[in-house]
Amino acid sequence: MTFSDVMDMKLVFEGAKLLSCKEGEVVYTIRVNESDVNPYGFAHGGYLFTLCDNMAGMIGYTLGYYSVTLQANINYLKSALLDDLLEVKGKAIHFGKTTDVVEVEINNQNKELLAKAQITLYNVKSAQE
Hints:
By secondary structure, the protein is an alpha+beta fold.
C-alpha cells in the first residue's frame, strides 16, 4: 500500500498528516480541534477511540483487506487537550486469514502516552478485488 492508496481511500481524517505507511504499520499526526473537545476542554473519549478504530481499518487495508471491527479495547491514560498535536501509531500484531489484531497508541507532542487500544478486525474481502 502506498501513501496515495491510503489517501485515495480517504482513510485518514481531514487535517491529518500521514507520516509513514507500510504493510501492517501506519503513523499519522492530527491536531485536536475545538469540535473534538468536551466542555471541560479535554478531547472526547469517543474522538480518541475513533482515531484508534480508524487506524485499525487503515492497517487492515495495508494488509490487503477491507476489514470491520470485531472487538475493541482502549485504555485512556492521560487527557488530550485543545491544540495538542497527536501522533497516532498502529501496528498489526497478528495477521491471519480471516482476522487481524492491531495495537494503536496515541501520544501527544511531548511523547506522553494518552491512549492505547487493541482492536480485532474481521477481514471482509480482499482490497485487490
